[in-house]
Each structure stands twice: as C-alpha cells, then as structure tokens.
Amino acid sequence: MKQKAVFLDRDGTLIKEKHYLKNSCEIEIIKGVVEGLHMLQDLDFKLIIITNQSGIKRGYFTEKDVEKVHLGLRSLLLKHGIEIDGIYYSSDLPEEVSSTRKPRTGLIERAERELDIQLDGSYVLGDKRIDIEMGKRKRLKTILVLTGYGMEHKGKVKPDYVAENVYDAAQWIKSMEDEGINKS
After folding, report:
1. pLDDT given for residue 184 in this prediction
2. What is the CATH number of the domain that holds 129?
3. d(Cα 30, Cα 131) in Å, to the nearest integer?
4. Going by C-beta distance under 8 Å and a sequence separation of 6 or more, which residues neighbour residue 83?
5. Within 13 Å of residue 43, how many CA atoms lie on the same side as its CB?
6. Catalytic one among 11, 92, 131, 160?
7. Does any domain span residue 132?
8. Which of 38, 71, 72, 170 is the most exposed place for a label (fewest CB within 10 A)?
9. pTM (2 decimals)?
10. Is 68 within the bounds of a domain?
11. Which domain holds residue 93?
C-alpha cells in the first residue's frame, strides 16, 4: 500500500549548515528536528531526505564520504527512535543539465518508484527556494523552514507555510492532516 511522505532537505533543515560537510563527526542536528520527525513518523509519513551534493563533482569529497555522512545521520536519528526511509542525492553541478539536482524533481520521482510513495498528500520541507520550487513542480504542499538559509529565502518564494523549524513544520502538517486539508 502506498504511503505519503515528507521530503526533507538535509543541510540547514535537519542538520546545521556546514560548508561541504564531509565528516559524520561534524553533524549537528538542529533544534526541533527530533521532536518534529517523531511527530511525522507518528502520522505515518515516510521520511525521505533529498539533497544536492555537488561537492562530489567539485572534488571536495567523495561519494563514499557522502555515504558515511548519511550513515552517521541515520545512526544519530535512530538513537532517537527515528528511521529515515530513504536518502537521495544529486552530485550534479548547478550549471549542468540535470534531472536530479533540485529544483528538478528526478529524485522525488525515483523515491516515488522505489519506496512506493503516494505523492497526493505528501509534503516538501526545506530552507531554500530550490526546495520549495521542487515541491511546487510536483504539486506538493511546501514548507520553508527559517533555519539554515531560510531567513535569506523568506519573501523570495511562496511556500504553503513558513515554519520556525522542523517541529513547527510538523505541527502545521499535523493540523493539515487533522483537518483533512491536504487533498489534491
């Protein structure tokens, strides 16, 4: 049976923004993430991370480094009882023609196929314009969080909701679900 999802940006949304993070020991979870992800899990959403990681093609780190960071993030969240259902990343550079680099929707489409996602009623949550644009392209509800680069992008994009952090976003999603509003 298909399940709804929350597509989450990684850097600046779930973890503190670090310029080209390559070591899992540098991961710092942002305040409100654990509580927010618990709430989303309790609402029976799949939790899927969608992230641009052009540092691979720029030569700042390797795919193996990215995989180690993702393993570290999964382990850290699992200690708090949170299971991430999928992590998808694009190594493409901004100037490349790409179907997977945000704001393009290729990674959402891949997750939809591989994880049996129901897009109707799913959400996108991130701290940048490209996260919101990606969600809008798939006609999903979008939430801009004011962590990371969120304050810089506020007013430059029109999300369905602006949240202080992931916990605030999860509360809004819960209210939408309770009222049965997010039906496409």
Report:
1. 45
2. 3.40.50.1000
3. 18
4. 41, 47, 74, 77
5. 25
6. 11
7. yes
8. 71
9. 0.95
10. yes
11. 5-179
Residues 49-103: tens digit of each pLDDT: 999 999 999 999 999 999 999 999 999 999 999 999 999 999 999 999 999 999 9
Active site residue 9: yes
SS3 120: coil
92 labelled catalytic:
no
5-8 and 123-126 as β-strands: parallel, antiparallel, unpaired? parallel
Q: What is the pLDDT of residues 135-162, one digit of tens each?
A: 999 999 999 999 999 999 999 999 999 9
Of these residues, 9, 127, 131, 160, which one is catalytic?
Answer: 9
Residue 184 located in a structural domain: no
Q: Are strands 86-90 and 123-126 parallel, antiparallel or unpaired?
A: unpaired
Q: Count of domains in the chain?
A: 1
Kindly give, in sequence order, each residue whose CB lies less than 8 Å from that of residue 59, ignoring residues fewer than 6 positions away.
none
